[in-house]
Amino acid sequence: MTAPVAITGGAAVAPGGEPLATGALSAEVRERVGRVERISGLTLAAGLHALADAGVATAGCRERAGVVLGTAFGCFLTNAEYQERFASGGVAAASPRLFAATVSNAAAGELGIALGLAGPGITLTAGGASGTLALGHGAALAAAGDADLLLAGGVDAVGPALRSFVGAGGLALGAAIDEAAALVVLEPLAAARARGARVRGVVTGHGAGFEPDPVAADAGGSLAHAIGMALASADCEEAVVAAAASPAVRVLVERAVASVSGRRALRRLAFEGPAGHSLGAAGPRTMLRMLESEPSGTTVLIVDACASGHVAALAVRVGEPT
Amino acid sequence: MPTRDHRAVLVTGRGAICALGASVASLWDGLVSGRAAIAPATGFAAGDLKPNHVAEVRAPAIGDPDRAGAFAVHAAREALEDAGLLSDRDTRIGVALGTTLGGMKLFEAWTGGAMSGLERVPYYAPAVRVARTFGCTGPVATPQLACASGTHAIALAAEWVRTGQADVVLAGGADLLCRFVVAGFNCLRATAEEARPFDAARRGLVLGEGAAILVVESEGHARRRGASAQARLTGTGAAADATHMTAPDREGRGAARAIEAALAHAGLAPAAIDFVSAHGTGTVYNDAMEAVAIAGVFGPRAVPVNSIKGAIGHTLGAAGALEAVMCVEVLRTGVIPPSAGLHELDPACAALDVVRGAPRTRQVRAVLSTSSGFAGANAALVLEAP
Question: CA-CA distance, B267 to B36, in Å (whole number)?
Fold first, then answer.
């Protein structure tokens, strides 16, 4: 089964270290957001807002609804807190509450529990391209009939431990890091239409690859291939390119996009980054911006890449398909 | 989005490293003999950890502080060689490598400042190391479904092959032992000195480490290069419990849904499955949950079941991949290894026909492997004879 996949809602939260705005959420979810790890709180807030945007009620267990979440560093902050307590206080200080959250799927699990999403519950890490890969995987699952509704996107929580790690050379981004969560609601187009949902866009293709040395002078072939995969089914003469990649791999992205531009007209926009790169949320956040800003009928190409070598591309046709 | 026939996804190579040895052959020989490779930890300071029994990799070649990455590279090399792809530099190969806590040994050593090897700390690092070592340019990702990570990595590889993202994917999982991990499971009171899956006297899991890789390949690509199929990867399924972060759903509903999804994907009725590789951790609640889920889907005592965690411990993100390696060998040989550590079947698991004591031989055409993990993650695979 390869059903077209619609985007019927979405939301991004980027509190920049400030408390999450949870006023619009139910008391039960507000309470949950207040006690879970930061990454799970970000995910819950974005997920709830995305469902509301899609006009989906949040009560009850849904066996055909799931989560596909991308994150570069996942539970890094929780790992740091657990390790700090354990290293300083010994075995007696090892926290079961914290250890239970030292898995990167904790955020997807919290979202699934809070909303009764009992379909696929998947987390992917692929460096700064995690969110774009997650969108592609989510679209493939929905297209294959493995779920009727998926909350898909990306998240990363940022705190002193992660800033210290990245600053010490853990990952070259060429930009400051910024916490954010950005999730969209994916549904098979027929199901979305059947419930009268507003279709904000349709995923028309995706691709992914790996650049073993992303700053090498000849790098870019794998990303170009991924872009070609994403556009293969797009049925468009022209696409608007939005780079979610961090500035550290700007040359790689420009080279790959230029190599594909000979076959299609690709109009490029700015990179995410100068004001802070939002890691796993970067791709989905960029896509949400494009869905807001571009006119209906436009094909948007999200191009994502990371100094880790991960690259991905996703093509979306904006608006209700004719 | 283009797709290929879901039956046209093959397994053409395998590699493994675990406490039973550093190859698929040593894993298989140890499992069939019923040997348990569990002992007090020696690879890190464990005197204050109670219990401190683990299933360690003791291969001398693995002296690397990035143990998960080193395990993954070792298993990938064996798998590529097995598939006849070790010297191939033309195929666009992807990497789907799950892990639960991969870089934690390096993370333990990091105290906030500069340090060599920092790029190998993140959970995506073992997959990156494999991709760079073997020059992979296809999709690379690290599925994180806690202890179901390795199983979903193989499912993701099948999706990439079906949708044309790659012709070949190195798929599996890797995980390691260190103080961070052992102390964590100990403080959850989830561990024991002996792993006894499905036994009436089971008290908890024993942690293990290692890696396993399957070469997942499109049938067309395998045919063009004259490669032999070891199995067909025909069914994948994933579902969440959506009930609790660490405790499984007592009714096994998430695990059952993942199994049913994998069967539906493969187009097989439960009766067509000849063997089930259970998650079988040896914790009281996991094994009872699985008995409900497996018996609910297949019927009481309807299909032989085993768990290999009594032999090699719970290898977390590698577990599902090591079990998939074993499943392919079961398909090839018709031999089902016994569940090490099982002496007296728990009445709560009496609905399962658990293979114990000695290997069982039967015709095996299709197998199912199931995995579950923290945050209510469940995943399942169906593999069939080629």
Answer: 36
